[in-house]
Amino acid sequence: MNSNTKIAIVTGGASGLGLATATTFVNNGIKTIIIGRDEKKLQDAATKLGSLCVYKVCDLSNLSLIPGLVNGIVNDFGVPDILVNNAGINMKKPFVEVSDQDFQSIIQTNLTSVFVLSREVVKQMTTVGSGSIVNISSMASQYGIPYVIAYTATKSAIEGMTRAMATELSPQGIRVNCVAPGFIATDMSAKALDNDPARKQKVLSRTPMGKLGNPEDVAEAVLYLASDAAKYVTGVVLPIDGGNSVGF
């Protein structure tokens, strides 16, 4: 690996948007470390992506593991240039049926672990005076979607955190941006929409382009924000949504 090769961490990198992002990174010569809970899926993804992709198994909701994870990555590969906070879980339940435990578990995975991982990576990035963090939000933070109260809370917080981080960290050479995917054709969304034709019709009818996006559409935006092409871009939330967030 030559010393100019950029190093990226992608959480939830074995499937969906994370895998699409890791694939796009590798295709652009970026050494990519994918992180997730399922070793088999991680192994399959890393094998498919070749020598520029390696994986680390870690349940990020176990916050105490994160500092060791980051130290291990730095020891093995050096200070990461890019962090993509993609890992997240969702739960569809009526508001009054969401238990304290349900709410906390989604906050822990989607929000607290993003904060802790970002903090530990930023400690490293500040030693070299550069870095790019890309957070992943959702249409749930752009407008109200029923039955996903905890998920919505986390994604709204991610967007606020993006702006706060960008303001504080940009003077230290670290850019922080966010991508807000609309309705993208992944296994997760297919499960949600194919069993609910009315919901699918509603999604398509308020998306001006009239179709779902591809995971690659999101990955290309993440690549742009992570790359030097976006060197004067920080603190933005970029919807990749076929016009969904402005659609009527």
UniProtKB/TrEMBL annotation:
* Pfam families reported for this sequence: adh_short_C2
Membrane-spanning segments:
none
Q: Which PROSITE patterns match?
A: ADH_SHORT
Q: What EC number(s) does the entry state?
A: 1.1.1.47
Supply the Gene3D superfamilies for this chain. NAD(P)-binding Rossmann-like Domain
**Which keywords belong to this entry?**
Oxidoreductase
Q: Which GO molecular function annotations are given, in alphabetical order? A: glucose 1-dehydrogenase [NAD(P)+] activity
Q: Which PANTHER family match?
A: 3-OXOACYL-[ACYL-CARRIER-PROTEIN] REDUCTASE FABG (PTHR42760:SF115), SHORT-CHAIN DEHYDROGENASES/REDUCTASES FAMILY MEMBER (PTHR42760)
- Which protein family is named in the record? Belongs to the short-chain dehydrogenases/reductases (SDR) family.
Q: What is this protein called?
A: Glucose 1-dehydrogenase
Organism of origin is Mucilaginibacter agri
